[in-house]
Amino acid sequence: MWNTPLQLGSFVEDQARIVGFVNSLKKYVPEYGVQLAGDMAAEQTFKFLFDYSDLTTFEKTFAKRVIPFYTWTRKNLPLQVEQLMK
Asked: Looking at residue 2, what is its pLDDT?
């Protein structure tokens, strides 16, 4: 059924994004209306469930090979600092 572990991982992450989007959408619809709520829900989803393909060429070719868990660390540390400041 699954050709590669990458496809399985992508499927699982997509399911998490869908659940996060729907959950955020439920939170924002009564307050802001459907269109703005959709935009806000998408923003929240991508804020906390990272897009691992959003990297520069340098990061893709060098940093990911040298530093273990580079992408997760690069996206998670600023988010953690921001949340701690709140």
From this structure: 58
